[in-house]
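Query form — protein SDR family NAD(P)-dependent oxidoreductase

QUESTION: What is the three-dimensional structure of this chain?
INPUT:
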Amino acid sequence: MTTKKMRRFEGKVALVTGGATGVGYATASRLASEGAQVVITGRRADVGEQAARELCGQGLAVEFIAGDVADEQSVRSAVEHIDRTYGRLDILVNNAASFQSMRFLGANRAEWRKVFDIIVDGTYYCTQAAAQLMVSKGIRGHIINVSSINGQRALEESSHYNTAKGAMDQLTRSTALELMDEGIRVNGVSLGFIETAMSVVDGVVEHETDWFKSIYVGRGKIAQRRQGQPEEAAGVIAFLASEDASYICGAIIPVDGGLSITF
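ANSWER: The structure tokens for SDR family NAD(P)-dependent oxidoreductase are given below.
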């Protein structure tokens, strides 16, 4: 017996920031496979255009727009393009992020600000611009912020990223409270170790290291004893973007294989 493929997002338009790689790419693919017209954004035009070609080659409706979420005007230009082209925006996934290992005592302001500009300011700019368009069109939209377990736990050499993700989590709760009256639901996902390009830190693949194999797998620090895949995160994001999650508001759902429940 063949199960009919879900089409929960038929007629919907979605914007996925940082959508050319990793979790963003998997999310764009998942939303488009369920019927959405998806727009992905990113700073690298070559990578973004290639991602869009790949997804379109699979019969999916995906467009790439070059842009920088840390630049408010760039964000507004992208949202204006979506309005002109598609006349609506139903789903926003704030996925763009930046990370590099950084010791706190040796950090400088530029390195600190770069992470905040993308993760915190970028989420603010995108959420505000998208919500304003949704409200103007009378759309009961969905906004999903892609956060990290780092927003709730501290990891060394990551003070900038830990703090920015913590701020993103609070922005999720705060905007959920304000935008619910406008019919817009805001939620988030808190990711653990997901196998993406960001898993490579200073040239080292995290889940291939001895400490990961020993602590997270061998000792069961991750209850499922493995890293996650981008598609597993995308499935939860798609759920939050759908009416299946109609009574979820301001939640930040762990997608971490049980990492957050161990000690």
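ADDITIONAL NOTE: Helices lie at 22-33, 45-57, 72-86, 109-137, 159-179, 210-218, 230-240.
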